Amino acid sequence: MKHIVTKSTRGNVEPFRAMGVVAAASKMQAEGQDVVMMCVGQPSAPAPLVAREAAMAAISAGIIGYTPALGIKPLRERLSQHYLDRYGEEVSPDRIVVTTGSSAGFMLAFLTLFDEGDRVAIPSPGYPAYRNILKALSLKPVEIESEASSRWVLTPQMLEAAHQEERLHGALIANPNNPNGTMMVPDAFKSLINTSNELGITFISDEIYHGLTFDVKEETALKYSDQAIIINSFSKYFCMTGWRIGWMIVPEHLVETVNRLQQNAFICAPEISQIAALHAFDGLDELEATKASYKENRDLLLAELPKLGFREIQPVDGAFYVYANCSQLSNDSEAFCQDILNHAKTAITPGTDFDTKRGKAWVRFSFAGSKADMKNGLQRLGDYLKR
Ligand SMILES: Cc1ncc(COP(=O)(O)O)c(C=O)c1O
Questions:
Q1: 110 alpha carbon to ligand 1 midpoint, in Å?
Q2: What is 17-47+284-386's CATH topology?
Q3: Tell me: the pLDDT tens digits for 192-209?
Q4: Which has the least CB within 10 A, 33, 60, 123, 159?
Q5: Percent of the chain with pLDDT over 70
């Protein structure tokens, strides 16, 4: 049938497969099946109690309304303080924009920085939404493959080579990265940013997994460049995925453009979440305890997964993921994950989300759940693979 209402080509993006796995696993759970969730990048711990209490008090007090587009002043000031406390960096609250999760931060950043057809370098493996949002905004993602020889991170040489092929307008890097948790050591990060600046490429730093690093200390890109765009979120370290709250830091001359785009696209981030986020900074003890549990989970998976036949695990410096090669067990990670879900009742994510070319040989495990979940998941995987 010919439709009168037609589809745009920009909407023709790939699904976020991890979310599909979550949906399938949740459906099985709703049907009463016991499924271990190792697919989703979300903490099983709730937001800190102080944050939840502040949100409840705000609801009891009355109206939850619109806020200024850039966010409530106390939260922007608290975030500015956070940069001084954690990184020793002075950042004016005027440069900080509160967003509806980092996801809205990407939209605002891309709309602020780029014009149709502009080319933006992203890592592969990397977070799939980068590619898909860029495409939906008629921008060109340029996937640069990281490799074992460079410890699975992008190097200045790789960036330069892609730029030489055809001009890059931007580069977007997460450090630690999703799906592997791999980080650039500070010197490598600094040289990547320097190269980006020298080549006139706008550097966007996704710092969403900051706070969740185990061996390498994370540095904000602001330390190396006041021209970098910082995107961050309360979703991961602060355990606030569903509150949809994040922030970005932009150079002063871009603030007004971001303000106007936010006013028009989103009006503001939800006020209730802004209030909760402000108080989340008073719940760091709880968050540090959660982080300590991730480290135990990580160590358990790193010890056990190789025994099950998973290989080439990329360095898990931070975040809560293990990205492992499964080619000894299957040559099709999508079918493999589906089988594991059906038969081992354990949900893990195929690498095809994160790496369009090599992803069939890789899978991602999330260790954001409880230790009991990890043990249970490993046991089920072991039993399934021994069959
Ligand atoms: C690297 C990275 N960036 C951004 C996001 C989006 O997070 P949110 O919109 O909840 O802040 C995620 C979510 O998993 C992620 O892994």
A1: 15
A2: Aspartate Aminotransferase; domain 2 (3.40.640)
A3: 999 999 999 999 999 999
A4: 60
A5: 100
